[in-house]
Amino acid sequence: MTDYLLDGGVLADGKAVQVLIKDGLINQIESVVSTLGATNLQKISINGCIILPGFVDLHTHLREPGREDSETVESGSRAAAKGGFTAVSAMANTFPVADTAGVVEQVYALGQATGLCDVFPIGAVTQGLGGTALAELGAMADSKARVRIFSDDGNCVFDPMVMRRALEYVKKFDGVIAQHAQDPHLTKDAQMNEGLISSKLGLKGWPAVAEESIIARDVLLADHVQSRLHVCHVTSAGGVDIIRWAKARGIQVSAEVTPHHLLLTDDLAESYDPIYKVNPPLRTQRDVMALREGLADGTIDIVATDHAPHPAENKECEWQAASFGMLGLETALSIVQATMIDTAMMSWGDLAMRMSTSPARIGGYADHGQGLKIGSTAHLTIVNPTRAWKVDRDLVASRSRNTPYHGMEFPGSVVATFYRGIPTVLDAKLESATHGN
Ligand SMILES: [Zn+2]
User: Fold this and answer.
1) In angstroms, what is the span from residue 206 Cα to ligand 1's centroid?
2) Which of the residues 297, 306, 342, 427 is marked catalytic?
3) Rounded to the nearest whole angstrom, what is the distance from the C-alpha of residue 154 to the centroid of ligand 1?
4) Is-contact 269 276, C-beta < 8 A?
5) Which residues surround ligand 1, an ion (CB under 5 A)?
6) Is 435 a residue whose pLDDT tops 90?
7) What domains can you pick out in the chain, each with its CATH number?
8) DSSP β-ladder status, 3-10 and 41-45
9) What is the pTM of this model?
């Protein structure tokens, strides 16, 4: 196995260090490390780049099994590695649905065989995402995939009795229910955020209250049965307020925000370009600012991508006919930097907490989110905060092209990702500075 010396980097707090990766583990972090005993050592000059713990995404749609035309575990893992992720949680809304031990073990095994990041399957809450009968939660938890997060994402677990039973059931193995909060009656045929723009465009509106009412109900249910709730993709100022209230009462709730909801707003729909059609929808600038504040103050625990690949025929069509969703893995870091770090709302240490430590804790992924701890598995993301880049949909690793950021410039980028001590991504400029020792 090759050992690596990262030379010239800085930690999240700005401290200049060398990092020695030996036998796949973080061996030393010092101003000057000792390389005695390292074998087959490769030195990589990272020249002022920031060394962060490997990112963990709790909300990824990898589409396999069943929609391999959109994405596969392999192509999605490649996109994840490019985005600095060393672990992703694969959502259950595949064909077949990941509602049995057999399907989650299949997805887990595909991830291990690909070997670019850990793929942790999320199990469905209800059979076939149907919303009525609980899926085999216990069997999925006991399976080789060790499922701890359960979600019907794409659908809301709308029946409060089913939600209550699910919350109760997962307590025995410290699981968590990740809810896609959307009242289906309030959002029937809805196309975009309900507001001035939807009225102007004549598109059916999707009110924030459809999300907020479910979040409010679910935090009360989680409190009642003393279980853990995770709120997927919060989009509205009102949702942030409810979660803030619940946390103040000691309710076990965690929440995520997507990069796109930190940046984009509903007025983009004026283009009628379905690249901006997403579930839950883009909201207003006021909501964007509340989400940023919620992420900064810890009300929202994590950033999760909701990476949702779709083939061209489902996105390059009329707005009403288009699928909901956008790519997210390869651009996440850049958008969080642009919206949260470069606006001085968060530090790089905060970013490491919200993109690595906290998601790993919520998902129970013990091998991830350890920070840069000596002796822990070397899952690392190296960021150059001043290497600007322009997003090009034709250069994505994903099998789909539906990025809303095509042509946009961002201030910083991931230049290397180490998964289990091995570089899964290494920027060509770094590579040219690499030499054996
Ligand atoms: Zn969702």
Assistant:
1) 14
2) 306
3) 5
4) yes
5) 153, 180
6) no
7) 3-51+377-385+411-436 (2.30.40.10), 54-363 (3.20.20.140)
8) parallel
9) 0.97
